[in-house]
Structures are given as C-alpha cells and as structure tokens.
Amino acid sequence: MENITDYKYRRAKEQVECIKGFYSNLTAYAIVIPLLAYLNYMTSSFPWIIFPAIGWGIGLVGHWMSAYDKNPFLGKGWEQRKIKELMEKDQF
Questions:
Q1: Is 1 exposed, middle or buried (0-12, 13-18, 19+ CB in 10 A)?
Q2: What is the dihedral of CA 10, 12, 13, 17, to 10 degrees?
Q3: What is the distance between the alpha carbons of residues 60 and 23, in angstroms, rounded to a whole number?
Q4: pTM > 0.85
Q5: What is the rounded CA–CA span in Å between residue 81 and residue 69?
C-alpha cells in the first residue's frame, strides 16, 4: 500500500507535468497564431484567424484551469471531497 509521502510525491509530479504541458501549449500558441495571422493578412481579406485563435484560446484556458486547479464550476478541493465521499460509501 502506498504511504502518504509517496502519494503526495506522485500527485506533485503529475501537477508539475501538467503545468509543463500548459507552458508548452502556451509557447506553441504564441508562435503559431502570429504566423497564421501573417498568413491570413497576406492571402485573404476574410479574417479567418479569429477561429483558430479563439478555439485554441478556449482550450488553452481549460489547460490553465487544469494545471493550476482553478475550477470555478466545481470549486476548490472538489476532487478530494468526492474521492473521500466515494471511499466512505464503498466501505462495508
């Protein structure tokens, strides 16, 4: 059985990986969207860049919320409360 220190370490490592993934996603957004904007400016009068910028931006906000435990819908600590509730419910 896993002790509390191992559990905390594993959760912290998962959190760090998620934050790292968020920053990679943010870096890609910061590089790709301006390139697409330039391509849009050079090739078309229709501003189609807004669609990938907004779509990816929404995904980026979701990734940020996941990486930093910011969930306005379920509140802080919801996951831990739900796990505790389910564990207590499952006891014999």
A1: exposed
A2: 140
A3: 10
A4: no
A5: 14
Q: How far is residue 36's CA from residue 41's CA, in Å, rounded to a whole number?
A: 8
The span from the CA of 72 to the CA of 70, in Å, is 6
pLDDT in tens, 2-30: 677 888 888 889 889 999 999 999 999 99
Residue 78 structure tokens: 């919801």
d(CA 62, CA 64): 5
CA dihedral 41, 47, 51, 54 (to 10 degrees): 80
